[in-house]
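Entry type: protein chain
Record version: 2
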Amino acid sequence: MGRGFRFFGILVLFINGCASGTHELKPTPTESTSLLLYSGPYFGLRRFTFTGVAFMGDRLFAGSERGLYEVVDGKIAKRFNWMPEWDVAENPFYDRVNGYLWFEHTGVGKLIRFDGENWSFVPLPGEERSRGDALAGFQMFNSNDRLYAYSPQGIWQWDEAGGWRKQYINGLNCAGERPGEQKECFLMAGAIGDDLLTVIRHDASLMSVLLPDKPNITQYDQVCILTKGVCTDVPNPMGYSFFVKEVASGVSKAYVLTYQNELFSVGSNGLEQLPSPGTVDKILQTNSERLLVALVNGEILEFNGEWKKMTAKPLVSEGSKKIAYLAEHDGKIAYAISRYDLTVLGDCSIRGQSALWVIQGEQNQCVGF
């Protein structure tokens, strides 16, 4: 979910909570085929935005500000909801190690997980949720045999018996939340096999990490492997300098997208730059260890030594300001986009603000209601 969307959502949740009072929420949602209609009275809300996509085996789920949707036979056919207003199901993620679909529900204030039949609440990582956590949310990733979550405050490892356990990072101080409070600040994480790949932005306040589109600082990001609290720099024989935008985890290597639109693989030889496929919006590593990228014009490409187009033509206009989401399972790709000024090529727009495609082979299927 975009940070502007999230901030607006937190404000509406506060107002809604004051107006409607509290009631006991249960992990099992209401399942409905009433998909798009929304009765929210606040600010005349009529938008529809996706907050992520995830495959759970052959099942495709899409998070949104109106609950969690399931795509069946190319149509958004089911809606799962927990609250009558601002039912935000955010950052859905399939945990292949434990076999659960996870997502954060910002209204409930918990993580929700689903095993294919049963739903359950799980506490958010950390004893106290900072303002930065509220704005950025929690992102999840798998190593070879573990589940992790991270926020700007740190990294947590999931243990089925003991819950979330924070990973110590020596010397890290990310407490500054006001402009001008310069701190060494954790940024994001991923995995290379069993190793934790960590990105640290130095000399930056927490809010400067969360909010700007491009970092406005001069000390570049540190990319390192975290072991027992100590971060060991990834070999960088060419001396590359950059600010990291996104990390894609994998078994033998990870990938890094920078704000300078550079792509790097991170493996046993350290940082290696990839040839540019164009201006990249989103990256994802598949279970078969191939890199998928979504370009700003909606083209999907795959890298396996060289770039291969997965879409026959661009899906959106290049100038559209949007947030993009990618998921993949056994060669089937889900690509979702959301934004206010969205321009979608063809008849795939949901209220002019969102769109979702399922891509397989030469078929680009527009998913609708």
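Comment: The two ends are 21 Å apart (CA to CA).
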